[in-house]
Specification:
By secondary structure, the chain is of the alpha+beta class. The protein has helices at about 20-35, 45-60, 75-80, 105-115, 120-125, 140-145; strands spanning about 40-45, 90-100, 130-135, 150-160. Helix content is about 40%, strand content about 20%.
C-alpha cells in the first residue's frame, strides 16, 4: 500500500469527478493507516449512504457539524441505514467531516488537515475499524464559502461485533 502512490489527490472536486476524488481520499487514508501498521478500510455502501446524506444535508441546510439542526447524530444517521444488522450486535462508530474551498478542497488538503487533528487522526487510525463510507459533495454551505467553490467531505467509520 505504501509503495503505490495515490492518484488524483490534487483534484478540486466537481460533480463529474467525485468518484475519483473519493478513491483518492480513501487511498490517502489507507496509506496513513499502513504507515501505522493498520489494515486498510473497506468501502461499505451503508456507511457511504450515511456520509452522502450528511454531506448533502450540510450544504442544503447551510450548517457544518456532526449533529444536524434536527438533532440527528452520526450514530442515528448510520443506524438508520441498517449498517448494524441486529440489536444483538455491538458496534463502534466514528465520523470525520471537513470542508474546504479552492485548493483547500482537494483530497490531499482534506486528509492532511485530518491527520494534523488528533481527534480526526484517532478515527483514521483506530485499529478495530474495518468499514468506511466516504462522500464528497462539490459545494460548501453558503455561510462558509463566501461565494467560492469548494467541497464538503464526510467519512463514516464502523466496526460490527456480532452478538
Amino acid at each position: 500500500m505504501l509503495a503505490t502512490p495515490c492518484q488524483n489527490t490534487e483534484l478540486t472536486p466537481t460533480p463529474e469527478n467525485t468518484a475519483v476524488v473519493d478513491t483518492a481520499t480513501l487511498c490517502l487514508i489507507n496509506q496513513e493507516r499502513a504507515r501505522h501498521g493498520e489494515q486498510p478500510l473497506q468501502p461499505n455502501a451503508r456507511l457511504q449512504q450515511a456520509a452522502q446524506s450528511h454531506s448533502e444535508e450540510m450544504v442544503e441546510q447551510n450548517y457544518f457539524g456532526h449533529v444536524s439542526p434536527s438533532g440527528e447524530t452520526p450514530a442515528t444517521r448510520i443506524l438508520a441505514t441498517g449498517y448494524v444488522p441486529s440489536s444483538k450486535d455491538g458496534y463502534t462508530l466514528g465520523e470525520n467531516i471537513a470542508w474546504g474551498t479552492l485548493q483547500l478542497s482537494t483530497p490531499a488538503a482534506i486528509v492532511a488537515a485530518w491527520i494534523a487533528s488528533p481527534e480526526h487522526l484517532a478515527n483514521i487510525l483506530y485499529a478495530p475499524y474495518r468499514d468506511t463510507g466516504l462522500a464528497i459533495v462539490p459545494a460548501v454551505p453558503a455561510s462558509l464559502a463566501e461565494g467560492q467553490s469548494g467541497a464538503v467531505y464526510s467519512q463514516e467509520f464502523g466496526e460490527i461485533v456480532t452478538g
